[in-house]
Amino acid sequence: MMISRRNFLQISSAAIAMSAVSKTSLAAIPEIVSIDKADTQPLLIPSTGRSYQPVTTLNGWSLPWRMNAGVKEFHLVAEPVKREMAPGMIANLWGYNGQSPGPTIEVVEGDRVRIFVTNRLPEVTSVHWHGQRLPNGMDGVSGLTQPPIEPGKTYVYEFEAKRAGTFMYHPHADEMTQMAMGMMGFWITHPKTPATMKVDRDFVFLLNSYDIDPGSYTPRTNTMTEFNLWTFNSRVFPGIAPFVAKKGDKVRIRVGNLTMTNHPIHLHGHEFEVTGTDGGWVPKTARWPEVTTDIAVGQMRAIEFIADAPGDWAFHCHKSHHTMNAMGHTVPNMIGVNQDGIAEQFSKLVPDYMSMGETGMAEMSDMAEMMPLPENTLPMMTGKGQFGAINMGGMFTLLKVRDNIVQNSNADPGHYQQPKGSQAYELAENLALPAATHEPQAKTSQSSIEFDVRKPEHKGMEH
Length: 463
Prior knowledge:
Elements: H1 13-17, E1 56-57, E2 66-68, E3 71-86, E4 89-96, E5 105-108, E6 112-119, E7 128-130, E8 154-160, E9 165-170, H2 175-180, E10 185-190, E11 201-210, E12 229-232, E13 243-246, E14 250-257, E15 263-267, E16 272-277, E17 280-281, E18 289-290, E19 292-295, E20 300-306, E21 311-317, H3 340-349, H4 367-370, E22 382-385, E23 388-392, E24 396-402, E25 442-443, E26 448-449
Parallel strand pairs: 1-11, 3-6, 5-10, 11-14, 13-24
Antiparallel strand pairs: 2-3, 3-4, 6-8, 7-9, 9-10, 11-12, 14-20, 15-19, 15-21, 16-17, 16-18, 16-20, 21-24, 22-23, 25-26
């Protein structure tokens, strides 16, 4: 398992030993496992405890545990972290065990779970186990069900994972600040019987949002609606890893929404069924087909489909301003405005000035190459495909379906090589349209309508 281990216990041993809810000694606390890489890590195959089919956390990883007298023990550390949102931009966030979002916790229905939570933040915190059935005192609402976890202290949560499903964890202490800084994580409770709801590939990620000014590193935490970075697991395109599947695989994608708005998540090239929520699995007779499912704030959705169409298929939020990065949210609409004179005047004052937006904003895809950007800032639209700029950012990634994908591997197979004759092409004026295979006809009660295929007239078409 490619996970680095760093023992932070020496820094705060005295504080941890004085944990407010546990009389165990420091030596009895599970080792802290941390990772700061933004790549999707290999599956965590269970070597102790009951067997289950592990999930793949997009641009993330699952937290190892230890077994202690039949109890599955984890150690979460709430701490400041640095997160690469995409190559070229680092954000100062808060998270768990070196990352934001924190590591995914995977358990099995019926497991007795004990989670040690150490606070390395500059303020109090707590952890709420979103969607879990548990004793009231373990629900993690500071001031209501427990005292807040003071900086340097460790609290212990212990409960039974009573039902299989898709859940989250996040603070319920200064929630506005801490969630705006990236404190959240995924929780999967697998069914007792591994064959239940079995799929070939099971992906998880959280939707989160940030307000980070161009040129800066730290989010504005008081923002309510004007976020400028919309992310999958605190990553924006092209930094978001693709979903990789072998042709014919049954694929599940689980999504949790901890932003401040809803997200219509759309998949190209396939239909899927909504099979689960954070309330449980949807009975087979109640599932419905979609190509887009809307996920409201605080909700989780599981979708499933057969990856039967080879190719590189887009997967994204269908709110268009959620598929751009920070540079695009305050740019005025300059379509149709002749800026020749303005550009000439401004260039005398600002040598690097260049006008843009006169014909649309697709040129922003090449912004980094066309003009200097502020430090630690991504272009509005980024990402290159085999045919040029993809003109996307934010909540956008790819489903890559191939014939030759190795089981349990998430290695990127590269660009899809489209079969000959299966790609859209430019029609030149001197190119005849393919002959129709039959005479198109349409009849009404009044008369017949004749269809006439004529050569389109395109003035100024380039040959």
